[in-house]
Structure formats: C-alpha cells, structure tokens
Amino acid sequence: MGRAGLGHLIIATSLFCLTLASVAQGQSITNGVAMAPPPKWVKSFEEPSAGAFENNGTEGESFILLEEQQHAGTGEVYTHVVKKITSQSGVQDGAKVHFSFDPTYQRLDLNFIVLRRGDKIYDRLEPEKIKVFQQETELERHQYNGTLSAVLFVEDVRVGDILEYGWTIRGSNPVMGGHFIHSFLVDWSVPVQKQVYRVLWPAEKKLIVKQHQTEVRPEVTHLEGVDDYTWEIKRRTPVVVEDTTPLGYNPFGWIQLTEFSSWKDVVEWALPLYVSTKPLPDELRQKIAAWRLAGEPEDQVQAALRFVQDEVRYLGMEIGPGSHRPSEPGVVFARRFGDCKDKVSLFCTMLHEMGIEAHPVLVHTSRRQHLDEWAPSPYAFNHVVALVKVNGNNIWVDPTRSFQRGHLKDLYFPDYARGLIIKPGTTDLCLIPAPKAGLPKTTVNESFNIKSYNSPIQYEVTTTYEGLSADHMRASFSNSRREELEKTLLNQSAKRYPKIKMTRPMESQDDQQRNIFILIEHYEVKDIYELSDDTRKWSTWFYPDEILPFVKRPETSFRSMPLGIVHPWHYVQNTEIRLPQDYNLQNETKQVEEKALRFERQVNYTNRLLRLHYELESLADEVPTKEVPEHLENLKKIRAVVGYGIQHPNVTPDAPKPAEPFQVNWSILAMAGMYFVLATVAAVIAHHYRPQYHANEPPLIIHELKGIGGWLIVLTIILCLKPIIYAVFLLKHAGVYFTLSSWSILTTPGNAHYDPLWAPLLIFEVLGNLTMLVFSVLILVLFFQNRFAFPRFFMLFLVLSVIMVTLDEVGAGLIPKAHGGPAVSGVALFRTLFHSIVWILYVVRSQRVKLTFVE
C-alpha cells in the first residue's frame, strides 16, 4: 500500500471513530434532526490528493470531492463533501455548513463534520452549536414551503484547512406516489477535482437515464436485488457563464434519472391531484349560477377568470405534498388565496360546473421549447395554466395573472411553447402557439414648448400602455399610492432634467374594454439649455431614455453562448419641440433591422417645430452565438443615433454666465502634452546631428561675407519670430482645442456645426503646430550656433510648412461650415509657397550662408 492509500485509510478510520463518538454523545438534536452514522449501504470512494489539486477559482474554497449516493428503494440520500479553504474569503463563507430538509416527510441525519489540518483531525459535530430554523427563500414571491435549515458555523477554521462533512436525508415526498425522479450536474462554475454520484436501483424496475450536454456514462454493477449505477467524474473544466444568456439556456452538462417512461405516465400521475373530492360551498355555487346568466360562453369564462385573477390573491403554501397537489377548490374560494395550481383547479372546477371544457396544463416559464429535450418527469414544470374549449376554439389563459382586461380572445398569454395537458388520453407534450394578442406596447408622446433659452419650459408627457404593458401599469396603480407613483415618475424625469417640478397632479385613464391605460404628466423644467463656456452657444439634448438600456453593449462581447433579449417588447417615443427661433436642421430617417429587433428614427423639422420619432421592437428572444457580432454592430449603430442635440449659434450680449465650471478637454490636452514631449526629445536628438564640413574653398571666395549680414539679418528676424507666431496661434485657439464644450460643439453628432471631419482636422492642427513650434526653436538654435546642418534643417522646415498649410486648407475646404462655404482659399497657400521658394533658393546659392554655417 502506498503512502496515499495509507493516508486515506487513516482518515477513513478516524472518521469512523469520530462518527461513533458523535453518536455516543446523543442521538437527537431537535425534531427532524439527529446524529447518526451513514447508512450501511453507503460505499466508500477514494478521495483524491488535496495537494495535487490546483485551484483555478476565486471563491475561496476548492472542492476536492463531491459525493452523493441514493437508495431508490429506501428513499435515503447520502451526501459527502470535502473542500479545502484557500483564502480568507473562504474562511468567511466556507466555514458555514448548511443543510436543508422538509420536516413534513424528511429527517436529517448528521453523520460527521471534521476539520483536517495537516495530519490532525478535529471533530466539529457539536450538537449544542447547531441551529435549526425555517428559512423561506421564496418569501418575496409569496411562496412558503416549510423547509428547515440546520446551520453550523465551524470554529477555528484557517486558510489551508480541509473541511469534510456528510449527512443523510431520509424520506421522499409522498405526492410523487413512490416514483423516483432525480437529476444532478456534471459541470460546475467552480473547480471540482472529483465528483461521484451513485444510485442503487431495484433490479426488477427500469431506470431511464437521459444525458443533457454531456457524454458522461455510468458504470453499472448488478448486485443482489439491486443495480448499482455509479458515475465518477474527475477534473471537469469549470464552466464560465456569460452574462445576458437567453431565458431557459443552460450551459451546464447534467443527467436526468426518472422511472416515468412516457408523458402519458406523468399525466396519469397528475390526474388524481386535480380531482375534487369535496362538495363546493353554497356561496361559490351561487356565483357560478349567476355567471351562467352572463350571456355567451366567452362571457362566462371571462367572468370566472377575472374573479380568480383579481379576487383570489397569489399565495403558495407549498408545504410537503402541497408542492404539487392543489388545495380543494372550495378551500381556495373560502380563504381567497392560492398558488398557480390552486387557482387553476378552482377555475377549471367553475367552468366544469357551467358545462365548459377546461383542463390544467403543466408548463415551464423559462424552459419552454427546451422541454422537448427532457425525459418525462413532473419536475420538468414549474407552473400551471389552463386550456379552455369554447365553441371549438382553444383559449389559453393564466389564472395566476392579475389585472388583465379586454376581451377574452385579446388577453395576453406568454410564449410557453410547450405544455402537458392534464386530461385522459394525453400522450405527449403539446405545442402552445406564440402569442399574437395582448402584446405589450408603450407609446410616449412628449412635448416641449421652448419660448426662450433661459426661461422655464412647459413639458408634458402622455404615455399610452397597450396589452401586457397596460396590465402591468394597472397592477402598479392598484398596488401603490398615487403619490408614490408621482414621486417615482418625477425622480425618473429628474435624472435627465434636474430642475423639474410637477405643475399638476398626474392623470390616468383606464379603457378596460380595449385594455389601454393612459398616463398624463405635466411638468415645468428650468435650464433645459446649457450655455457654452465662451457664452456663445446654447445647447440641449433629447433622449428616448427607455431605449438606452435595451441597446447597451453586454459585458461579454466575444461570446461562446447565445445572447438573450427582452421579448416581447415594443416601445415608441414621439417628441415635439417648439423652438424659439429658426434652425438649420435636416430631415432624416435611420433604420436598423435584423432577425432580433427592428429600430427606426425619424427627424422632421418645419416652422420651428422639431419632431423626433423613435421606435424599437424586439422580434426574437435570443441572438445565436454566430450572429452576435452583427447584432452588436447594429446596437452600435442604434446607440449612435439615440438622442438628438440642438444648439443656438447666437447669444445676446447680456447672456448669463455659464452655470457650470470650465471643463478641460483632458483627452486632447494629454495627447498634445505627450506629443510635445516626444517632439522635444526628437529635436534634442536632431541637434546632435553634425554632418562633415568640407573646407575646400571655391574660387573667388569673398571672406568678408562670413557672419550675419545682408539678407541673413532679415532671416534672423524671421527665425526669431517663428516660435512666437506658432505659440500665439496655439494659445489663441486653445479654447477650441482644449475646452470640452467647444470641442463638443464641433465633434458631437446632432449639433448645428457638427461635421465628422472636424475631429481629425483639429487634431492635425494641434499636432502640426506643435511640430512647427519645436522645429522653429531647433533651427533658431542651429542658426545662432552657426551649425553646418542649419541650411538642411531650414529647407526641411520650409517644405514642411508648405505641406502643413496645404493639408490644413484642403481639410477645411471639405467642411462647409469651416470657412462659410466649400471653396478653399489659396491665398495662404500661395503666400507660404512663395516665401519657401525664395528662402530655399537663397540658402542654396548664398556664399554668406556657405561661409557662416561651418560649425
């Protein structure tokens, strides 16, 4: 036996002794929780070496062994966990040992809890320190399941310790009628060195094993009376889950176990659950009799549906068998609350009493079409709806929904895609048609009446909600006080317009026949315009705020998983702005359409009235992985035109000073600073350039021409002025280059002076003038040092000047708003070119230059 095997033997022996010692201390901790050894049928599995396990996670703990063993015949489930604490965060979180069970049909046996530190093993199963309490995790969803939690905070846990614990749950939910159903993951988002799942299955029965996104298969051993199915999984790569995946998408591999051989078996299991055995109360029978007189069958169905939806509140008492068995219809009616199955059972019973066919339908709110991949199982579903037959037509309704209005055929029913109809003869899942009625739509009509740039503005918003959107808004009004809703809406608007106040109470209109809900808001807004830093421009922006979150870029752009989209969703915003004077604004239409969404923006301007129209509609609930790049590019196109800015180019002399402080364009300033440093370094390097001087004198040389004199005096003046000229130019235009407001006026789409060429032209001017400034200082130094390299650098400087002026004039000429028109002025170019040619000829031919610059 090797060292590793000997070590595991010592650990196993120690655990056995500690378990016996723990049991000897006392069996019972509290009702439903006891201390006991593992069941005799449990098999020991070799634990991998903790030292060989590399932790690639960031959770503070590494799982060395995850082990679950289940005996289908006795209903016992044994779980064994070995994990290593790898950081202080792991000490905080990993030291809490947590067990959950349903006391109505389960018992929790704590088998052992030990702490291993090096070669030492410490018993941490201390009954007096275990706390048992009821923790309702679904309380916010109005669901109570009665689950108890036993929690132990293990003491003296340190980084590097190994925590090992095992427990057994005895008992299974009687509502399942003894049917075996189970599933387990084979992929995790954290590192797991080894995972074991084992089930002992009666040999005379058939176990259906369904693999989902995995090829892991069990080793099957035939024992006396049972078959041993064992999965041993080692070192699976953790799954990195990307953000914003579609509803129902599961990136993890998992295995499903069931003894239901068909969906027909599931229906036969569910049918008795929806059979009422008690007579209906007289009050309910009277209501049903009154509804019979309501008119056509559609009206009777709608009356019963509205009662269950609005008069029976949602509250799930899903304790024990109540997880799947609905309460008696009479009980639900009397107490006026129930969960989805309770409400559906009551609703179907009412319709049966009126002679209308109706059946419960099991669905899943997120798995939808993915149910096709499942083996038959009641656990495939998490919700119950109803199918009603009226005049030969199928009508799908959800009695759990509240505040639905409109005609029965116009009610919204979610796209559940698949369902299992609980009625005799059902053999398979049914297709549920995609919704066409009651689809959500929100239309916002807002108006701004701007009379001047510094006076309060009347701002009105009329929002029309249709279909599902109207249902949600109606529910909000029912569940909240009007004052609370007014405050919420005011604060939402204040995010865009800080100086806003409500001038009249909010108005609401509820057209329940057409299921349209209208909300009208009246505001006054101050300082909607902002004055530029140089007090020459007023500017403001208008955005469709509800669209912005929909088109934001997901956190994970390079994806291996599909991208989920909110669907169905349809939003329209119409903005009217009455402007105080004429603007030069262009009408335009922008459209983006793909498989997942459709977007449109229209801009219309006439007679000082600016109209902006935005519309965004989802067309699918997900984008396949291979289509994500195209989708993200479309989102970018949409974000580029979501929002419209306008500016007033002229301001009266007595315009108020800007309310906001001066803002530096730090990005351009930083770029210019770094470039200036690099240019200076280049100039210093160039200064050390010393080409070899040839002293051979040409014939007829006049030595009196040596030194500064003649035309060199004029050149001296010009060279001394050049750095000053470039520096003054940069300072004069610093307000354009280095202030954020002026830069934004020229480079932000939607502004009156915007052009896409402004940004590259301005950057070129900044860097070009910095180059010439440094270059002019360099040639000035070379000039006064009589350096032999001066003529070469001076001619290069003149050529560069011509290139700079040419590119600047051409670039400015391409921008109509740069110089009042598209024509390029050739005056500056001709002047620079003539000046450069004259001085280049002088430097080349002058004997004074040849005699003076010899160093």
From TrEMBL:
Transmembrane residue ranges: 666-687, 708-731, 757-784, 793-815, 821-844
Residue span, DUF3857 domain: 72-235
Pfam families, sorted: DUF2569, DUF3857, Transglut_core
Domain Transglutaminase-like: residue ranges: 294-397
Cleavable signal peptide: 1-26
Keywords from the UniProt entry: Membrane, Signal, Transmembrane, Transmembrane helix
SUPFAM superfamilies: Cysteine proteinases
InterPro entries, per the entry: DUF2569, DUF3857, Papain-like_cys_pep_sf, Transglutaminase-like
Protein name, as recorded: Transglutaminase domain protein
Organism: Pedosphaera parvula (strain Ellin514)
